[in-house]
């Protein structure tokens, strides 16, 4: 009887595993098609100065406009794309699209602001990365300093020496580098000092809970201190409440990003957001 049960269980698991493998293969096929058909888009979330609320930059966040499922968030497809390596061509599209979009904004004569995008580990390991970034910047006439690339600690620490070399070639090109989700990965402080980076972005889990949890607040404050001690700019992400923004401002955090200022928005919504913010200034000067 136990044997029969074991056999059933084995069959069950096999069926489930097959199903899972099939749905992964389906997702992989769908993602490849999505890239061909142009179903990806970037949504833009503002980063503002903590001191004055001035727009400093926008982070481009990937979305998949699926014909049946609607807007799909990156959490649902980036892990698989990283596993299969499809993140490399998808990431190349993100770099190209960010450069194209920021060039369009610059051509519209908007006040200038930076653009950041997220890289995955596979892209950082790809020897062609710097050339790819350089080509996209050149194609669209975007000065390298406008673009900032976000990496995570864990991503860099995995084969740190090689990744450090890649980071140096990117920095030599003139693009900015930021460490994203800081505080959640495993980076040694000795290495952190060797990263050729400009910025730390405090993970939103600390920022989100800092009002309720003294430990998260202490960690947030410590990261701001650490970043400044290393000569880095510090960004808090996930700022949702005015009280958190006030605390971060008092602590001399440099930039704030979060729903309090704006959600990630498709281009027309971001342009409307921008126009609305600029409007009172125009009225005052007129
Ligand atoms: P991330 O780079 O840390 O991006 C910030 C995430 O926090 C975004 O989620 C954003 O929508 C969310 N967020 C921002 N402000 C708030 C807030 O005030 N409250 C809350 N609850 N959330 C906030 P999203 O867009 O779902 O992206 C998730 C992650 O997917 C990103 O985290 C990034 O690691 C990854 N990702 C997004 N786009 C790309 C891409 O083009 N390439 C790669 N490799 N990864 C990407
Ligand atoms: Mg990011
Ligand atoms: Mg990230
Ligand atoms: Mg983050």
UniProtKB/TrEMBL annotation:
<protein>
    <submittedName>
        <fullName>Diguanylate cyclase/phosphodiesterase with PAS/PAC sensor(S)</fullName>
    </submittedName>
</protein>
<feature type="domain" description="EAL">
    <location>
        <begin position="24"/>
        <end position="278"/>
    </location>
</feature>
């Amino acid at each position: 009887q136990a044997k029969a049960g074991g056999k059933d269980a084995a069959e069950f698991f096999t069926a489930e595993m097959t199903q899972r493998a099939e749905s992964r293969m389906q997702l992989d096929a769908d993602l490849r098609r999505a890239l061909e058909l142009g179903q990806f888009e970037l949504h833009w979330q503002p980063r503002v100065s903590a001191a004055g609320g001035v727009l400093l930059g926008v982070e481009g966040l990937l979305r998949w406009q699926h014909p049946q499922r609607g807007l799909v968030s990156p959490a649902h497809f980036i892990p698989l794309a990283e596993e299969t390596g499809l993140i490399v061509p998808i990431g190349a599209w993100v770099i190209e699209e960010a450069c194209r979009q920021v060039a369009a904004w610059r051509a519209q004569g908007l006040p200038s602001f930076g653009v950041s995008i997220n890289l995955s580990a596979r892209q950082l390991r790809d020897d062609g990365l710097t050339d790819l970034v350089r080509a996209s910047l050149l194609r669209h006439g975007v000065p390298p300093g406008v673009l900032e690339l976000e990496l995570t600690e864990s991503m860099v620490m995995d084969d740190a020496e090689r990744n450090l070399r890649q980071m140096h070639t990117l920095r030599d090109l003139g693009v900015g580098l930021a460490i994203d989700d800081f505080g959640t990965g495993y980076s040694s402080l000795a290495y952190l000092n060797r990263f050729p980076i400009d910025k730390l972005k405090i993970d939103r889990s600390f920022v989100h809970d800092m009002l309720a949890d003294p430990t998260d607040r202490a960690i947030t404050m410590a990261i701001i201190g650490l970043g400044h001690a290393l000569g880095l700019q510090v960004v808090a992400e996930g700022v949702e409440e005015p009280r958190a923004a006030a605390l971060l401002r008092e602590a001399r955090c440099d930039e704030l990003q979060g729903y309090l200022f704006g959600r990630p928005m498709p281009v027309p919504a971001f342009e409307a957001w921008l126009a609305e913010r600029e409007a009172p200034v125009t009225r005052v000067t007129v």
